[in-house]
Amino acid sequence: MFSTSRQLRQLQTRLARGFSSTGPAHSHIGLAPIRYTKEVKIEHLPEAYSKTDSRFFDKTTLRVMGPMGERTMAIEPFVTLDFVEPKDKSLAEAEYQVSVSITDSNQKKQRQMWGTTRALINNCVVGVTEGFSATLRFVGVGYRAGLEGGKLVLRLGYSDPVVMDIPEGLAVTVPIPTRVLIKGIDLQQVKLFAAKIREWKKPEPYNQKGIFINDETIRKKDGKKK
């Protein structure tokens, strides 16, 4: 009887959703305009994002330039960008805006890409103006890092040190042997390289040793009692 009642409630819920008269939910993130100053220049180019990768043949190119560098990203064909310029461009704090919209909010893929596209564009703007960074903390006896010959060298208790190439576009410094600072204009690239370093000595919960990213913490576990 309990199982039948539960199935009935589930069926009623599905039917209610299927006949709902409410319109599709809009992306709260996608609706928010992206604000930037005149030190940033954004161009939406009609050319394909890639002429060699078929996945990007129908996607246009967005170029974001700023004091720290330049970023490009692919824009889906159903995404529209509306640019608003300030009335007085001579002001030092003149604010520019770009808004993201989609062709059909009833399409699930378009709704998903709405907020995602807005977030990626905002990351590009932040990247070329402020940049992104990640700090890795080495916790453990003898754990340390250094730069040798333009490569990052990790000493983590293995028989041989770990030597890592630094990806192009990233700046890596070692202010002290137990700290590694990564900086770059591409948030994904910064996070990916930090994660690759962390993979060599993941934090373990018993002695709480390992490589920690930023303010990362783990819950301490008690060892097995005999």
Shape: extended
Number of helices: 4
Side-by-side strand order of the widest sheet: 11-12-7-13
Overall average pLDDT: 88
Structural class call reads: alpha+beta
Rg, Å, rounded: 24 Å
The CA-CA distance between the termini, in Å, is 48 Å
Q: Classify the helix fraction into a percent range.
A: 10-25%
Describe this structure in words.
With 226 residues, this protein is of the alpha+beta class. The protein contains 4 helices and 13 strands. The protein has a 4-stranded antiparallel beta sheet with strand order 11-12-7-13, with helices on one face. A 3-stranded antiparallel beta sheet has the order 1-6-5. A hairpin with a 2-residue loop joins strand 8 (144-148) and strand 9. The chain is extended, with a radius of gyration of 24 Å. The model is unreliable at 18-23 (pLDDT under 50).
How are the elements arranged and paired?
Elements: H1 2-18, H2 28-31, E1 34-36, E2 41-48, E3 60-66, E4 69-75, E5 79-84, E6 96-102, H3 108-129, E7 132-139, E8 144-148, E9 151-155, E10 162-165, E11 170-173, E12 179-184, H4 187-199, E13 210-213
Antiparallel strand pairs: 1-6, 2-3, 3-4, 5-6, 7-12, 7-13, 8-9, 9-10, 11-12
Summarize this structure as a short list of keywords or feature phrases.
3-stranded antiparallel beta sheet, alpha+beta, 25% helix, 4-stranded antiparallel beta sheet, extended, 226 residues, single chain, 4 helices
Short description, anyone?
25% of the residues lie in helices and 33% in strands. It is of the alpha+beta class and 226 residues long. It has a four-stranded antiparallel beta sheet with strand order 11-12-7-13, with helices on one face.
